[in-house]
Amino acid sequence: MVRERQGAGLVASPGAGWPEDPATATTPVAPDAAAVRELAATAGSVGELAARESVCRACGRLVAWREQVAATKRKSFADEPYWGRPVPGWGDDHPRLLILGLAPAAHGGNRTGRIFTGDRSGDVLFASLWRCGLAVQPTSVTAGDGQRLIGTRMSAAVRCAPPENKPTPQERDTCAPWLAAELAAVAAGLRVIVCLGHFAWQALWPQLAAAGCVVPRPRPRFGHGVEAPVVASAGPADAGPAPLTVVGCYHPSQQNTFTGRVTDAMLDAVFGRARELSGLAPTEA
To answer: CA-CA-CA-CA torsion for 159, 190, 269, 284, nearest 10 degrees?
Structure first.
């Protein structure tokens, strides 16, 4: 696999053969927040949006960190190449269900190039999605492994792995246009958004309001299994605005699963309910 040196480390070169890489050598790169806003607004398609997200270099601290991790690696992955770039949204381009997380893991998505893939949180998450009929395999190990989501898309409020898994408010806001554009691109069929954790829950509401959705006031408090109805701005012209439900879910982090704060049964209950709300047929594949 061809790689190139960018900043502090070796990262996957756009268009050089990484499985599922949406970008090419000519994909425009956002060097700052203003360029993020422009490139997100003019992407034109879900695929081009993912490509532009995946080469973003707008946040210097995040760029340095993700590439440092890609260069130094974790000992258990020392012989593997790392993606080392922003991790774009992934899954169905016309989803009825969107799963929103905080940010890629340093040795998960930042290594594999696919959101929620290659770490223990993803192991638990994908197993639940498979049990609930939302994924074709119980595991997601690396890009190109045959995994596919059913009527579902995954994304994150921040597209780069942050130090200590804590993006700054400025980094969150700089990245927000990517999320806003993704929501707009999939709005027509979207019926459910599951937020994994409080950060994702908080990041979502301003984007829904900016998109013209009628959101509850006051803002609903985050909790596991909480359902908040939203009137979406998109829908068939003769049917009026489309219904949308935002569902809270505790993040399947290693700490939460090890302590029992999140169990398989709890995740299955959320995603089973999300599938029901989304209107996906039990046999859809």
So the answer is: -110
pTM of the model: 0.92
Quote the CA–CA distance of 227 and 56 in Å, as a whole number: 33
Residue in the structure block whose two tokens are 């609930």: 132
Structure token digits, residue 227: 């359902």
CATH number of 3-278: 3.40.470.10
> Is residue 3 predicted with pLDDT exceeding 50?
no
Q: How far apart are CA 105 and CA 254, in angstroms?
A: 12
Q: Are 102 and 199 in contact (CB under 8 A)?
A: yes
Residue 59 pLDDT exceeds 70: yes
The domain segmentation of the chain, as residue ranges, is 3-278
CA distances from 285 to 86, 152, 176, 270, 277 (A): 29, 11, 31, 20, 17
Give the model confidence (pLDDT) of 81-131 as tens digits: 999 999 999 999 999 999 999 999 999 999 999 999 999 999 999 999 999
